[in-house]
Amino acid sequence: MKNIALIGCTGSIGRQVIGVAARHPERFRIAAMAANVGGALFEAQVAAVKPAFAALRREGAPVPVPHGTRFSRGEGAFEEACAYPEADIVFVAVTGFAGLKAALSAIGAGKDVALANKECLVVGGGLVMRRAREKGVKVLPVDSEHSAIWQCLHFDRAAPFSRILLTASGGALRDVPLAELPSVTAAQALAHPNWDMGAKITIDCATMLNKGFEVIEAMHLYGAALSQVEVLVHRESIVHSMVEFADGAVLAQLGVPSMELPIQLALTYPERLPCCPPVDLLKVGALHFEEVERRRYPCFFLALESAERGGGYPCILNAAGEIAVGAFLRGQIGYAQIARVIEGALAQGDLPADGYAALEEADAAARERARALLSK
Predict the structure, then answer these.
(1) What is the band of 91 on the pLDDT scale with cuts at 50, 70, 90?
(2) Under 8 Å CB-to-CB from 328, ≥6 apart: which residues?
(3) Which residues pair with 252 in a beta bridge?
(4) Is the separation of the CB atoms in 32 and 87 below 8 Å?
(5) pLDDT tens digits, residue range 210-259?
(6) Closest to 325 (Cα-Cα) out of 315, 333, 316, 313
């Protein structure tokens, strides 16, 4: 029996982790679960899962929990869930900068981490991977693309390779004429053709900021140089990523567009259990690959520039992106202004990023930069 601490239980990934665990109750038990705020979904999850410990990060009133479940809320409760003593693995599915604290807390407690939070490695990848090496714990990739790479490397993140080929769907706006992009609505940008995900990441797919994040993730997870990571637009979302080797061979991982396989694999590897229906290649037909268009996806190229600069630039990129996407979803700015806000925040220069406290300060400062740009 593998005991799981699930951080971010009410999000899209968190809900699917609960589903995977419920499908194999003889193998998995969610011993602890945490979310940022409560509500009907959180209460229903706790009632169904019956974890030993349930936590909410935000302060407030107690919530009803079943007999045998201990409940607490506040920052201390969140940290306790992230480092839950009985957990064999901590599943970090919380979104945003909070994922960094969750991962560092779990690693500090000597727990393996199943990482479904992009921002964690974008903002503090060097710190996270160094701490994981020092504690001798595993960081298991859950992003579909990074899980694909991990599988192509036979579950060995240190295996040699020549290049990583990350695939991208191109998002909901990949066929919208360039002249119409400034006027697209949030509803249009959220209508992803292949994947069902949360709002923030779906907008990041439309701008391809998320693919820039994944390039930075690949650099940290697999020790890749920026020049060793290439991104290809692949509309079908069947090839989840590929790895090229010294002899010219390229291995690819194919599958239907579903997060359940990478979620389950992070819990069962190297064993594979029944999960998703296989790809019907005859039905899929041709597979297509295209270059990333600079004019259509400026956020992606801002991410590459941030990766090249290093320092606090990836932290600024992430923070400004969160503020800009939030403003777009609220109707405060147009779609094309997301890239302008990010670019403006980056143009104001680097920020110290040596250690968690410095990253927290850089994150807060970058958000203030972005808010100031919004006010103009």
Answers:
(1) very high
(2) 186, 189, 203, 334, 335, 337, 338
(3) 242
(4) yes
(5) 999 999 999 999 999 999 999 999 999 999 999 999 999 999 999 999 99
(6) 333
Cβ atoms within 10 Å, residue 283: 6
pLDDT number for residue 228:
98
Beta-carbon contacts of 11 under 8 Å, excluding residues fewer than 6 positions away, are: 35, 93, 94, 95, 198
Q: pTM above 0.90?
A: yes
Is the confidence at residue 195, as pLDDT, over 80?
A: no
**Tokens 């259990």 correspond to what residue?**
273
Which residue in the block uniquely carries the two structure tokens 């020790």? 223
Give the three-state DSSP class for 278. Answer: coil
Q: In whole angstroms, what is the distance from residue 175 CA to residue 193 CA?
A: 11
Question: Where are any strands of DSSP class E within 88-188?
Answer: 89-92, 112-115, 139-141, 163-168
At 239 the three-state DSSP class reads strand
Q: How confident is the model at residue 193 (pLDDT cuts 50, 70, 90)?
A: confident
Q: How far apart are CA 173 and CA 37, in angstroms?
A: 31
User: 352: cis peptide before it, omega within 30°?
Assistant: no
Indicate the helix (H) or strand (E) that contains 253. Answer: strand 250-254
Q: What's the pLDDT at 295?
A: 96
Q: 303: alpha, beta or left, given left = phi > 0 and alpha = psi -120 to 50?
A: alpha
CB atoms within 10 A of CB 304: 17
